[in-house]
Amino acid sequence: MQHSDVIVIGAGPIGIEMAVALKGAGISYRHFEAAAIGATIAWYAPQTHFFSSPERIAIAGVPLQTQDQSKATREEYLLYLRNVVLQFGLEIATYEPVTRVTPREGGGFAVTTVRRGRQHHWSADRVVLAIGDMHQPRRLGIAGEDLPHVSHYLGEPHRYFGRRVLVVGGKNSAVEAVIRLQRVGASPILSYRGEDLDPERIKFWLMPDIRALIRDRRVPFLPSTVPSEILPDRVRLASTTGGDEQTVAADDVLLMTGYTQDPTLFEQAGIVLEGPGKKPRHDEATMETNVPGLFVAGTGAAGTQLAGVKAFIETSHVHVDRILATITGQPTADLATPTYELPES
């Protein structure tokens, strides 16, 4: 069993930034990622723009430049992450998911990974969980949700050209999907459980576009509705206000209803999870959980964000500083968390 001072789990932006900090401090570490680096960002639809400005999502002191000096696209940010990894010579074991983190008697941790179907075992004095908070779609639990024409991700808009697409949801992901589908030549319909779209929960540059599409009747809007059953060529919608059920013809269905965190590693390691979002208990000053030596970093520290997105890349840079300061015995009192709030995805 090979030993390191630290094992970092997750190679999103904050996991990568943590690795840069550890390497710069001369601390031995291993770094594991279940998929490719930046995996959550990789499943964004092509050319999706970040809400945050480039300087706020830049990591490890490396400036983020964009082609047109505007907010970074999915593609630009993935390129940026790859370049940061190359620039610092980081070694990341991608496509090697961690399946178990076990505290050991007397201190330290045993970590199990799977690579090419075989288990591998590692040990470390400390573990940093930078696993993010959007691992799986928030399911509706209705009949037909697993049919092949149903998805929780937009993906490439071109494949919906000429098709009727029911989009379910009323926040960023749903609204952006509707706008892009309409522009690519699809026929989207928007179903939302609320009575109206909330501008506080939608990127400000999307609101004029979606309002115009609905106003001009280029996109049918079905407020106060929720899917009750998905069939191969149509969807049954129930009313949230006691109205009649209606049926909508659809070739494809996009359930843009949000995403949840997988808390399995937290639970296995003995981290206390708090509230309906299962936020891992931790000391905000150090990012250390109730399990000594086990830290959380990035949006994973927030659990599943149910009441508005308040933790994201730009508020998580300080986690790296706090963890490194704790490991090296430096003071952390002056490391305050930036306070911003973005619309939900």
In short:
By secondary structure, the protein is an alpha/beta fold. The protein is built from eight helices and 18 strands.
Average pLDDT works out at: 92
| DSSP E strands, number | 18
Would you list the SSEs in sequence order as H and E? Answer: EHEHHHEEEEEEHEHEEEEEEHEEEH
Low-pLDDT stretches are 338-345
End-to-end C-alpha gap: 41 Å
Work out the helicity level. Answer: 10-25%
Characterize the largest beta sheet: strand count, sense, and whether it forms a barrel: 6 strands, mixed
> What is the radius of gyration computed over CA atoms, rounded to a whole number of angstroms?
22 Å
Shape: elongated
Structure description:
It contains eight helices and 18 strands. The strands form five sheets. Strands 1, 2, 3, 4, 5 and 18 form a six-stranded mixed β-sheet that branches. The protein has a five-stranded parallel β-sheet with strand order 7-14-8-9-10, with helices on one face. The protein starts with a strand and ends in a 17-residue tail after the last helix. It is elongated, with a radius of gyration of 22 Å. The chain has 345 residues and is α/β, with parallel strands linked by helices.
Main attributes?
single chain; 345 residues; alpha/beta; 5-stranded parallel β-sheet; 8 helices
